[in-house]
Amino acid sequence: MSKMLGFDRQIKKEWLDMTMELLIEGKSTQHIREQQERFMALDLPGRDARRKTRLVISRMWLDNNAKLITLRKRALEALKENPEIDTRIFHWGMSIATYAFFRDIATIIGKLIALQGYFKVSQVHDRISKIWGERSTLTRACSRVIQTMLMWKVIESTKEPKSYTSFEKLRIAVEGKHVAQWLIHSLLLSRENGSIAAEEIRRSPELFPFSIEIGLDSLLVSNGIKISHRGIKTDFISLKENNN
């Protein structure tokens, strides 16, 4: 059975911001879905298009997914404590943790930008099809993920058609220990082995739009992250058990 792409719609940042705000206010899932329906109607006149778009967001923020409970809770707590945090950090982290398809595209784009300073849509399509296999919906879904990144202003067009680079070649600063720990938590959840070498965090291709400034000593005091030693100089970071 083929894996589900899942993230196959263009998702505006404003829709996700509204969802987070309503969750912080303690609104019910039904109320949130009703508000999403009203808000999306301005851009998506088709009922089926709205339903499919809400489904993408629901898997991230509303559905009963044990893997994401802690991640969601900590994101809402962080934003409630500091409403000035750039919410793209949370939207990106939830996207890679929820959707392997989004994560794989982000990884491909991050590697291409690191290698050549830009990426072409055709390059991403070719590489993602090798991972997910040829299917009728793949090209469109891939393009919608890229368009979502464009709307979030983490990438921008170059002078070449269907070619993009990181937005203004500036990375989004992830400031504050708890926010950095949260984004690393999302990265660990997105990876099949659930771990990463500490020295690789800052250059993880999945997190290409972000600049994480956090020392290893700060990770040691995290409730959800543990550090293990493999070899003389290599520290690996992974999630603690029962800290999904």
How would you summarize what this structure contains?
This protein has helices at residues 13-24, 29-40, 47-61, 69-81, 88-98, 100-116, 121-132, 138-151, 177-190, 216-219, and strands at 119-120, 155-157, 163-166, 172-174, 195-197, 210-212, 225-230, 234-239.
How would you sum up this structure, described in words?
- The chain is of the alpha+beta class and 244 residues long.
- It has 10 helices and 8 strands.
- The protein has a 3-stranded antiparallel beta sheet with strand order 1-3-2. A 3-stranded antiparallel beta sheet has the order 5-8-7.
- The model has no long low-confidence stretch (mean pLDDT 89).
Describe the protein's topology.
Elements: H1 13-24, H2 29-40, H3 47-61, H4 69-81, H5 88-98, H6 100-116, E1 119-120, H7 121-132, H8 138-151, E2 155-157, E3 163-166, E4 172-174, H9 177-190, E5 195-197, E6 210-212, H10 216-219, E7 225-230, E8 234-239
Parallel strand pairs: 4-6
Antiparallel strand pairs: 1-3, 2-3, 5-8, 7-8
Helix pairs in contact: 1-2, 1-4, 4-9, 5-6, 5-9, 6-7, 7-8
